Amino acid sequence: MNEFLIGYARVSTNEQDLTAQRNALEALGVRSNLIYTDHGLTGTNRARPGLREALAACRNGDTLVVAKLDRLARSLRDAKDIIDELTVKGVKLSIGGSVHDPTDPVGRLLFNVLAMVAEFESDLIRARTREGMQVAKAKGHLRGKQPKLSTAQQRHLMEVHRAGTHSTSELAELFNVARSTVYRTIQRQSVDR
């Protein structure tokens, strides 16, 4: 029976490039036509077509190859689901050239430890991002979405609204914005008074 090396690569954003991962997989012996990819999908999203195809391509005795564990899974639950599927199929997992047999107790332990580290790293990234956003907000650099109307336009809208000569729909049409923008502006201006 022929045993194949099936490769999987993933990048989280559309701006990122898969070339480095593809090169790493080919250097590990994976043929280019057996590399499955996902572009612009996070590791926490299990609905990844490339991963689904890679797992479907794996047969008993094959090895699923990833350049790094975080390319495969970013949560312990996801990693466990993937390793359970590989175990049922009799497929080994190679992470950067280190092969782990999920049917072997030591291989399973190593994989679970690596999966916990990947999840921990993901949690740290989220925490640092939230912390950075709080600092930016405190410094006034993170202000959220800017209003559709300038300050002068908001003032004019409020004057017309207070005159009672136009309905909300008419105000939206007059200022070329959605009705929700008119409602938000009225609400914001009422609170600011």
Report on this model:
The chain has 193 residues and is of the alpha/beta class. It has 2 domains: 5-133, Resolvase, N-terminal catalytic domain (Rossmann fold), CATH 3.40.50.1390; 151-192. The protein is 54% helix and 12% strand. The protein has 8 helices and 5 strands, in the order βαβαβααββαααα. The protein has a 5-stranded mixed beta sheet, with helices on both faces. A hairpin with a 2-residue loop joins β4 (92-95) and β5. α6 (151-163) crosses α8 (179-192). The longest helix has 34 residues, at 105-138.
Summary?
By secondary structure, the chain is α/β, with parallel strands linked by helices. It is built from 8 helices and 5 strands. Strands 2-1-3-4-5 form a 5-stranded mixed β-sheet, with helices on both faces.
List the helices and strands and how they pair.
Elements (H helix, E strand, L loop, with lengths): L4 E7 L7 H9 L7 E5 L9 H9 L5 E4 L2 H4 L3 H14 L2 E4 L2 E3 L4 H34 L12 H13 L4 H7 L4 H14 L1
Parallel strand pairs: 1-2, 1-3, 3-4
Antiparallel strand pairs: 4-5
Note the overall shape: elongated
Look up the CATH topology of the largest domain: Rossmann fold
Helix-and-strand structural type: alpha/beta
Amino- and carboxy-terminal Cα gap: 78 Å
Strand content: 5-15%
Active site: 12 (o-(5'-phospho-dna)-serine intermediate)
Domain Resolvase/invertase-type recombinase catalytic: 4-140
Keywords: DNA integration, DNA recombination, DNA-binding
Protein name: DNA resolvase
